[in-house]
Design goal:
Number of domains: 2
Helix content: 40-55%
Order of helices and strands: EEHEHEHEHEHEEEHHHHHHHEEH
Number of helices: 13
CATH superfamily of the largest domain: Dehydroquinate synthase-like - alpha domain
Largest sheet: 7 strands, mixed
Shape: globular
Bound molecules: nicotinamide-adenine-dinucleotide, zinc ion
Strand content: 15-25%
Radius of gyration: 20 Å
Number of strands: 11
Amino acid sequence: MKIHRIRVPSATGKYEVVCGSGVLRGAAREIARLGKFSSVHVVSSPKAWRAVGKLVPRRFGLLGAAAVHLFHDAESGKTLASVEQIARSLVRAGADRRALVVAVGGGMVGDVAGFAAASYLRGIALVHVPTTLLAQVDSAIGGKTGVNLPEGKNLVGAFYSPSLVLSDFLMLRSLPDREFRGGLAEVIKYGVIADKQLFAYLEAGMEKILRRDAGALEYLIPRCAEIKARVVGADEHESGQRETLNFGHTFGHALESVTNYRVYQHGEAVAWGMMAAALLGYVAGITPEADAARILALTRRLGALPPWPKVAPAKLIAAMRADKKARAGKIRFVLSPRIGQARSYDGISAEILQRVLQLGPALLAHLGAASAL
Ligand SMILES: NC(=O)c1ccc[n+]([C@@H]2O[C@H](COP(=O)([O-])OP(=O)(O)OC[C@H]3O[C@@H](n4cnc5c(N)ncnc54)[C@H](O)[C@@H]3O)[C@@H](O)[C@H]2O)c1
Ligand SMILES: [Zn+2]
């Protein structure tokens, strides 16, 4: 078994992402290296725990059996009420300041359990065990935690670094296909923003990757984790470089928001968003035609997406302006001047944006198909 160790620099102390097939078997040893804990508390959801609980050790070294705390990880469960439920359950289980939370689940569990760990007794140690492709390549790395309010997503939270991330590829075996493809959209994103070789690898092997070929995961997951670690290490609080991780997300979040988060899996919205960003980059004279066409063609190979919503461009633009990443009402777009590079632009004219949104779906289909010739 090959184990990859990726260091993530962070203001609150560096930590490692340890990934590989079967790494969870060594969890007790990895956790023992972090120091002494008074007790271990697994936080997961009924669904994730049913799928992967059998792969997670119950005893961590000399400590007694871990207590298991479950909460519902539907988007509707990403609330302060869930944080309260977890915290009260930790109190009842006797968790003190030296207790450890092990978050086992997708991004949802990681965000909520991470925020619970950040705030319980003003912060106890946290280990992420991400169980979705998205969580392994993205959400478990970088220290963002938080919950939604009725007024909007991720409005309450904290930057709180884990002490360790354990990414076991075996966890992904039970992942539904739609979740896996959604995670792959973020993998394509890493290729576009930071790694042209990764992008070419995806072009050469998408079918194999969609079959979850072990060798392909062995290459892709550590590579994406490295990119995320490098980007957040250089810019933990999202001033410049970290923004590039939002490639495809300005459009993607708007699509999710105008459809009330009911139509798209996040990665599906990002897939549309990346195609729209490629098109916008092309129309704005930033992304060369050949690069835009490659981004479109690769993204389309993820499979059919729920259709672009039948809403007026103005409604999508309003949703983009309301996004918390817009500054002073100015919409910022991450665009790619060539595959493997990206930066943020806030000078895109309203007219160009309007044009892309108007022609968007039809033109995307055309450009995507043209590149496949
Ligand atoms: N903190 C960050 O930096 C960051 C980054 C991106 C996304 N996020 C957040 O992550 C969340 C989405 O995360 P996600 O895409 O991992 O989805 P998710 O956590 O909602 O999980 C998707 C579904 O898969 C189930 N599941 C999880 N692991 C499984 C497995 N191994 N086998 C079978 N089923 C499994 C879950 O129970 C859930 O029903 C959103 O709330 C988003 O805001 C956070
Ligand atoms: Zn995303």
